[in-house]
Structure formats: structure tokens, C-alpha cells
Amino acid sequence: MIHPHDSVIVTTLSRLLIPLVQLYALYILFFGQYSPGGGFVAGVMLGASLIFAILVFGPDAPASALSRKVLHGDGLGLIIFAGVGGLCLIGGGEFLNYASLSVPGLEPDARRSLGIVLTQIGVAVDCAVTAVSIVFSLAFIGHEEDSHA
Amino acid sequence: MTYSFELPLLALLMITAAGAILVKDLISAAFILGTYSFFLALVWAWLGAVDLAFVEAVVGAGLATVFFLLTLFQTDPEDHHIRRTRPPLLALVGLPALGLLLLYAANDLPEFDDPTSPASVHVSPVYLENSLQDTRTPNVVTSIIMDYRGFDTLIETAVIFTAGIACAALLRRTSA
User: What are the sequence ranges of the domains in chain A?
Assistant: First the structure.
């Protein structure tokens, strides 16, 4: 069981830091096409910021409400990734061949770029949800699980 | 001095790796393992694999340490049952010999920044020359793992998802 941290310094600093970490994770996610980064790192950083909220404020606090809600999205990232592949099938190409992504009015290379962005979002969602889910699993070994499902 | 950066880095890596194994307190071991990951991330960055360095720093040093600590908080942070027996004579003789053999074999590897090495003349030029036109993505690593090797990445994502599901299935039991 994780108890809320009682130090004012830690809670104040984490209130400042958590949005910054999330902002940086989004930057890494969407700038991963131009600089080092990408879906995996961004997802893990998003997950780490949510875990940070759980560790500092406790799993029941209002500040970690997002971390509890995220748990319901298990598998969503995989669906996004595979769904992009399915959209390519609908567009008449092979599975995950983004050049035939069924988005009208785009050149093939722009479609590829869009496909990379969408799949990276999928990977990021998957990583973030899995990280938070594992932390919840580890934190409640042997405890009655009442409202954190 | 040619190796003024590599040699201290290698020494720090070996010290932290040995420390993570030898230390008795398992919470300290988890933290030392995190330090090891940071040094490893420096190695990746030094070799030019900045994406990999990023992943190592975030996953190895950040997330894995949190997982280790949470596990230790749920169990006993100090393991009294670790008995360190002397390694057998065969291991004491054989493993250094194997290491020397590997070092000897490493002599035949191409130089690290050699543009004519087999690895950098066979496949990588195709990606380096075509990926920007193909995908409008300047970061070649991203275009390879997300587009050229998209199916691999899909399966990796499935592996991560499976890990989360397996943890939940094993550990979250309402009636323990």
C-alpha cells in the first residue's frame, strides 16, 4: 500500500514537476520525427509522471485521479497501432503500409509521415498505461482491491 | 590520451555492476542498478545511439528502479538467505580464458567509425539515402522502427501490453 508523502517540499515540487514532465513527454512524442525520442520514451515518461503522482499523493488523492482513469485504457494503444494498419488495408495497400493510409488529399510521403505519428501515439499510450498498470499491480499485492481497478 | 573518456566510463560501469551484485541491502542494489543504467546511457550516447540512450535513461534508470523499489517494499528489502559460495575452480580459470579469447577475437572487428565496414556499406546507406524522401521524417531511427520495420514495433507493443496484463493477472487478486 502506498501512503501519501507528508513533506511539504516534496508535494509542492511534484505539483510543479508533474505537468512539466508531461509537457516534455508530449514534446518528445511529437518531435520524435525530427530529433531523438519517439513513442516508447514518450510513453514511459508520461507513465512515469502518472506514477510520480501516485507515489507522492497516494493512489486515492484527487491529484492522481488521472492515473486511476488511465488504467481503463489498457490495450487502447495496441488498438490505435493495429487500427492504423487496418486503415492502410482499407486504403488498398498492405497492413501497416502507410503509403495507402486512407486519408484523402495527401501525398504518399505525407501519408507515411502521418502514419508514423499515429503509430507513435499508439505506442506511447500503450507504454504509459502499462507502466501505471504494473505499478498498481505491484502496489496492491495481497491487499483488498476496492476502488482502484 | 585516446581513451580519456571511454576508460573512466568503462571503470564506472564495472564498479556499479559489481556493486549492484555485491551489496547486501537490496534497496541499495536497486539504486546502484539505476546508476549503472545512467552510465550505460552515456555509453549509448557516446556511440551515437541517442535514441537508445534516451530509452536506457528513462526505462532502465527511472521506471525499472521504481518497479524494483515497489517490489522490495512489498517483500523483504534485506535478503538474509543469500549465501555466497566460492566459485568453482573451473569458473575461475575458464571465464578469464573465455574473456581473453573474446578480446582476441575483437581485434578482427572493424574500427568503430570506419565508413567501409560491412555494417555501414550494406543496408544502412539505403535507409540513410531514401528515408527522408519516403517518409518526410528526418530522424532515420524513427522512420525505420515505425515504418520500414512497423510490424516489429507492433509486436513489441503487443509484448508490452502482455507484460502489463500478466502482472495484473498474477498480482491483482481480490481474494488473496
Answer: 8-139
User: Which of A33, A112, A134 lies at the smallest CB-CB distance from B134?
Assistant: A112
According to DSSP, residue B28 is labeled H
Report whether B43 contacts B9 (CB < 8 A).
yes
Domain ranges within chain B, ordered by starting residue: 1-79, 117-176
ipTM tops 0.90:
no
In A, minimum Cα distance to B62 occurs at: A48
**With a CB-CB cutoff of 8 Å, which residues 77-96 of chain A face chain B?**
77-78, 81-82, 85, 95-96
**Using one digit for the tens of pLDDT, what is the confidence trace for A34-85?**
888 888 999 999 999 999 998 898 888 888 888 888 888 888 999 999 999 9
